[in-house]
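Subject: design request, 267 residues
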């Protein structure tokens, strides 16, 4: 067992993870992982079930993956739960998903607190019901103290919308004379995004085989490694996560430089 895992194991309780499998992993652990949790509908439909059943099954994968990431020492996990564009789905699916978020918030409360996972919900929360917003705010507050991993859940989120939001804020500051156009730097922009206080995104995973980003973390994905698996989200487990991490560990992240520059330790 790695020293990291040993420490972590002592701090964590009742994990729903296969710890032996996680201990066997010897590769790099990304600081920030984002997941496009896709394929719930297909998972259910292929079993003759309603799509909403697939979303409920997907919530179990969320618990597993959150706890596995926490165990491995990931600092931030960002999960795409509902996009801005998903509001356009049939009304019964949208309301079923909103009910599921409410259930998740109530059901996972104890586990998140016990395992020191801090919840943060990102996106256009104004579109959620006041009741759901209130439960989210309460759980965010309850899990903030002593958090060892941040779980960012993107709900009513769109990458373009996030960039527009920051752009409007910046334009207002310029209009008010509080900012000069030359002061608009990458750092400033970063500091105004939903992900402001999180480490750079290292790895983006998409399930269900779709080779697209679907409006997720468009700014942040710039130099993230991308991993796509055919596994549908409700079937995603520790083995699937370790498959993604193993692939990540084998990548050479060049950030525009040459492989030789990296080998010679030039920065
Ligand atoms: C992802 O699963 C969850 C949400 C978008 C809310 P889908 O519901 O997109 O499942 P598929 O892609 O139709 O199988
Ligand atoms: C992306 O999945 C959004 C989430 C996983 C929440 P979609 O199923 O909405 O993406 P598209 O429509 O296939 O691009
Ligand atoms: Mg989908």
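Subject: RE: design request

Done. Sequence follows.
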């Amino acid at each position: 067992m790695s020293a990291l895992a040993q420490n972590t194991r002592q701090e964590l309780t009742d994990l729903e993870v296969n710890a032996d499998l996680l201990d066997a992993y010897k590769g790099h652990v990304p600081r920030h992982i984002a997941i496009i949790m896709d394929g719930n509908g297909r998972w259910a439909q292929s079993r003759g079930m309603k799509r909403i059943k697939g979303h409920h099954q997907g919530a179990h994968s969320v618990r597993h993956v959150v706890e596995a990431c926490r165990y491995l020492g990931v600092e931030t996990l960002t999960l795409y739960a509902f996009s801005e564009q998903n509001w356009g789905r049939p009304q019964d699916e949208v309301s079923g998903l909103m009910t599921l978020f409410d259930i998740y918030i109530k059901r996972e409360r104890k586990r998140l607190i016990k395992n020191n996972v801090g919840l943060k919900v990102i996106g256009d929360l104004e579109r959620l019901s006041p009741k759901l917003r209130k439960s989210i705010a309460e759980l965010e507050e309850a899990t903030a103290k002593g958090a060892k991993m941040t779980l960012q859940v993107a709900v009513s989120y769109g990458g373009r919308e996030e960039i527009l939001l920051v752009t409007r804020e910046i334009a207002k500051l310029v209009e008010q004379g509080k900012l000069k156009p030359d002061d608009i730097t990458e750092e400033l922009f970063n500091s105004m995004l939903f992900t402001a206080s999180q480490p750079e995104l290292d790895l983006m995973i998409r399930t269900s085989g779709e080779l697209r980003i679907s409006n997720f973390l468009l700014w942040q994905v710039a130099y993230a490694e991308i991993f796509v698996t055919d596994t549908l989200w409700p079937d995603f487990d520790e083995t699937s996560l370790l498959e993604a991490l193993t692939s990540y560990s084998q990548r050479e992240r060049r950030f525009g430089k040459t492989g030789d520059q990296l080998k010679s330790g030039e920065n």
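The chain has a mean pLDDT of 95.
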